[in-house]
Structure formats: C-alpha cells, structure tokens
Amino acid sequence: MPKKLGELRSWALANSKEVREEDIDYVLAERLGFSPSEYQLKQDLVLTPDQEKQANKDLKKLFKGYSPQYILGYAWFLGYKILVKKGVLIPRFETEELVNWALETLKPGDRVLDLGTGSGCITVALAKEAEKRKIQDVNFTISDITDNALRIAEENLLNYEIDAMVRKANVLIGLTKFDKIISNPPYIKESEKSVMDKNVLANEPHEALFGGTNGLDFYRKFTKQVRTHLNSKGEFFLEFGFSQKEELANLFAQELPDFEIEFRDDMSGKPRMVHGRWQK
User: Fold this and answer.
1) How many Cβ atoms sit within 10 Å of the Cβ of residue 60?
2) The whole model's pTM is what?
3) What are phi and psi of 83, to 5 degrees?
4) Under 8 Å CB-to-CB from 66, ≥6 apart: which residues?
5) Domain coordinates in residue numbering, the chain
6) Does the keyword Transmembrane apply (predicted)?
C-alpha cells in the first residue's frame, strides 16, 4: 500500500468504483485528526506504519459497504462528537436545523422529550447549547423503541455529563407530559427503498428510517396521542420528508385544529420541519 497520504487516496479511488470520494476523504481525514483544509494541504504526508495499518482496515470496510461513521464509531452533530454504532441512525445535518429551531423557544424549567432519540444527539446538542445560553433547569427525557438505541444514547449523555430520564416507548404511549417534544421520526416511504443509498439500507436501522407505505405512520399516531402528553401551551418540533408537507398540513388541520402550525424549509430550500404550539 502507498506510504504517502495522497498516494493512498489515489490508490483507494482507483480500487473501488462503489465508494464515494467524499467518504474516503472523510475517514482518512478523521483518523489523522485533520480538518478538511488541513487534509488537502497534507497530501505529501508520509504515513507511519500504524497509520498505514489503520487506513488499510478502514478502506477495506468502506469497500465492503460500511458507512464511514460506523467505521469511525462516531459522527459530528452541531459540533458535538456523538458515538454511533449499528442500530442507531447516523445524525443528519437537517436535524441540526431542527435543534436550532427548538433552541429559539427553549425556556428555563422546560420539560423536554427527545422522542425516538436514537444516538441521543438531539438531547446532547440541546443540553449543551442551553448551558452555553445559560438556560437553566431544563429537564430532559429520552425515549426510543429499542434497548440498543437507548444504551448508545445513555453512553453519549454520560460522556457529556447530561442527566436525563430514559424511557422505552412506542411513540408517546406510557410517557408523561412535557413542554416540548422534539423528534426526527421514521418518515421514508417504503417505495423509496429502490432509490436510496446502498450504505444507508445496508447499515442503518430500518425502524428508524421507514414510516410505512406513505411514510406517515408515525405522524398519524403522534397526532392522536400528543394532547395527552403536552402541558398547556406545549410545543412540538418534528422533521419530515421534503415531499410530505401537503399531506402533513392536511393531517394537522384535521387532527390538531387547536394547534398553531408552522412549517420551515431546510438550508437547501426544501420543506423539512414543522412546529406545533397548542393553543389551550
């Protein structure tokens, strides 16, 4: 295997047509502790034997279809290093925007539910950003349908010294009342499997991705249950698929007429987030 970083990168690109160039660059840069700009400037770096060995292992896994974040064992979310393993969704940039929206309304003493927490990235980011803004006494609960996800989420909370109640739940059944509920639920349509990234399908938990025939199974259950689990003037923040805005608007109008509903686009200009505030 080549000894210089640039040679190694070229070798990797030449030896696998299935792996994206950005995934190779991401894994190599992260292992070496380089920022994207440092990585570009360090292509003449002569690798140590240990660095070569690690790169060889990582590239073999990439070639076999493993996701870069699962190879590294972590992902970045709003600047926070989040441990990830198979069994939890890899945090997405769009969800960072959802967290930033929720932060706009976060108040001291709020009771917050991270519904379908996965890796716990939402609670980590909310809690640490609340600390920075001196928003005190926020009470967090995380819930998920799988024990595996809850174990990984708890590990991330422990790493960041965040206290939270941990509950196993299917949507909101069995949970208490909150001031805010935030969630990136499963919303992909079953019919979209054929056009999805192979790495996502092979690596990430399907229960965290797919939301039934039209992707709306979660939202139908949520709208039936949410009033029982919100305090007066309570709010929710949900992510959804960019093609689902019209269907969701109709669903909320029918099921939640006493909620003030607002949709927002993501940074790409696609409808992606919805906020609901109970008027009672």
Assistant:
1) 12
2) 0.92
3) -65, 135
4) 199, 203
5) 5-64, 87-278
6) no
